[in-house]
Structure formats: C-alpha cells, structure tokens
Amino acid sequence: MATDVQVPALGESITEGTLAQWLKKPGEAVKADEPIASLETDKVSVEVPSPVAGVLAEQLVEEGDNVAVGAVIARIDENATAAAAAPAPAPAVSAAEAATNPPGAGETPALKGDSTAPVAEAEDEDHITTLSPAVRRAVLEYHVDPTKIKGTGKDGRLTKDDVIAAAQAQQGAPAPAGAQAPQAKAPAPPSQASEQTKAWAPASAGGRKEERVKMSRLRQTIAKRLKDAQNTAAMLTTFNDVDMSAVIDARTRYKDLFEKKHGIRLGFMGFFVKACALAAKDVPSVNASLEGDEIVYHDYLDVSIAVSAPKGLVVPVVRNADRMSFAEIEKTIAAYGKKAKDGTLTVEEMQGGTFTISNGGVFGSLLSTPIINPPQSAVLGMHRIEERPVVKDGQIVARPMMYLALSYDHRIIDGREAVTFLVRVKEAIEDPTRLLIDL
Fold first, then answer.
1. Regarding predicted confidence, which is higher, 229 or 216?
2. Which residue is catalytic, options 65, 127, 249, 410?
C-alpha cells in the first residue's frame, strides 16, 4: 500500500515552493514524521515529513521544480522494507563533468553516481547523511573525503562551508616528507551569498571555469523586495555618530551578573532596541507605514532584526519590543539567530514588523545606507565600533565611536523628524540612564 506525500501548508499567502533537496532517496526506509525533502519558499525553508513509516518508493518531482501546496511529490510504501526496495538507477555522468573529473580522479566511491548518494560518517556507521548538489560539487572541486568531515548543518549534514573549511585545513597541514608542495591554496570561505557566487577554479592548466547557479527562491524574493523598495519609496539616509563608552562600561560592569540572573549575555542590541522604542515615542512617523493614501501609526514597536542566514538575509520580528525588558529582548534575538542558522524560522515569525534594525558592524562595516523593508518607513543601520579621536571639553581624546545610519521614506518622514529620531537614539546610547527614566 502506497501513501502519497503532499506539500504541506506553507503559510499565509504562500501557494507554492521549490523542492530544494531530497533528504531521502528511493529505496531508503523512512519513519513517520521523518523529513524526506526540503522545500524553499519566498521566506523560509520547510521540511516535508513522511506521513507514515515505510520505504520511499517513488520521487515524483526533481530538485529545483516548483510545487504547489497540496501537490503529491512522493509515495511511501508502508509494506515494503528497505532491503527489498530496489534502489534508483544512478544517473549518467555528464560529458562536461567527465572531462573535468575523470573516473577515479579526486572522487571518493560514495560520490560516484547519484548526487544524493548516502555517505556513512567514520565516527558512526549507522548515521547516514546525504550530500546536496552544492556540497557534492564542492567535494569534487576541493578533493576532500566527506566521510572525514564533521557536518555542522541540520542533523549533522555537511554544508559547503564545512567542505571549504576542511580543504583549507588540509592545505594548511604539514606535507609528508618528499611530498610536493600544493600548487594552489583553497579559496577563502564564501560569503553568505555563496549559493549564488562561485569561486574561480585554479588556473594551473591555464584555463578558467564558470558555473551558473539558479538563484534560490529566497534570494529572488530578497532581490525583488529590495528593488521594489528603491523604486517605490522616496528613500533618503541621514547619519550620526555615537560614543559607545557608557554602554561599554555598563556591559563590562554588569555582564556577569546579568548572565547569571537571566542566562543570556547582555549585548548591544538590547540598548539600541530600547533606545529606538524611546525615540519612536517622540517621532511616531518613523514607526509608521504608508498604505495607499493613508499613514498608519502604531502604538507598539515590532522590531524586525536583520539576521544573516546561510541562504540569505532574514528579518524575524521582536514583537512589542517597547514593552520588553533587556533580558527578554536579548533572549528573543538569540533564539531567532539560532533558528536562522538552523533554517527553522517560520513565516509567522518574519511577518509584520514596524521598524527594522540592521547590524552590519558584526561583519566589520564602517558605514552603509540600509534599504527600507516595505511597508515600513525606516531602518536603522548599526556599524562597527572603533576608537577615533574626538574633542571632549576642549581636549582631543580617543573614544569608541559608532556610525549610525537612518534610511527613511521621505514621503511620510521629513528630514527634521529623521534627524530628531537619530539624535534621540544617540542621546539614549551615550547616557543609558535616559532609558530608565524615559527621557
């Protein structure tokens, strides 16, 4: 008896997704509620669980295909066993791949044939993980053994970054006596956009290689939304700088007590969220949105926190941030950060939001002009902290300074309001006591 596996509901207003990866292949045993495939929607990645225990008898769609909610993508045979099921035939290797990687050259036996062939980890022969096409290409390109790499992805799966890190470690290891020095160093780890940008192949033979990779559904949505924001909003950015001395001193003084009491580290984001909540009371248009010819003002602050995830930028929402304590803010942001890394954020956790904070400083950014997240009217950009000479009481002194950038929709926010908001944030950060007495 075969049971159909259907695409589950993907969230409000989402009617289809892209089958990003098969986590099981035909002939493999599956448990009830065990993920067999990964779907990519406009906002999040969703795993498709098996409705019953049995054997994956048939895959009805290919990786990269678009599938609608409710569509049947596979069938599970409840009566079959993994040993009795016939494995799927291995696809033929393309001529281009055969020319680039001749049989037996830089390829482990587990990588021949199907791109999702199971690879047993050396530490646990019973633990089976599958290689995604991107990971398989990286393994072939960098000539590493995937069975000797510890996966950091969900459920211990290998990621492309794991492969590149292993290649770098292999290149950095001392060569055996008499061994020839490597001709080329492994490329540096890719950025968060590594899914779309590929490294050049080593030009040892005088040739160059290009690889075309279709943009993921999430990356296409990000591109469309950001371009729409530029085309629609009358976007302008104003800047200021802030002395971080008081906040740094407060963190240094109370970080141990804070972590002991609340179980979470005291970070900078809590101060900035509270400062923005305070400033939004004085300048409510920064926390407003434009719908048609009406301006919608909110008496609450739902802050979208820009988080870099493996597949692109996501913005989970800290709801009612103006009513939360420092500990509640830090715990919520930390939980979202972990979910973003694991790819388990839900659509509901990223919907809404009345104001956005983006911290490019964690990547070393000195200054930027962030783009508004529609239908919001403003976004605050934080940047790296560095000591710079400033004048205090007639003396030139070194202070830990940070540039702040506020991008805003000039259709509903005037320059005076934008500057006032940014000054209020600056005042609260330079004198955190204001956050306690509401000044």
1. 229
2. 410
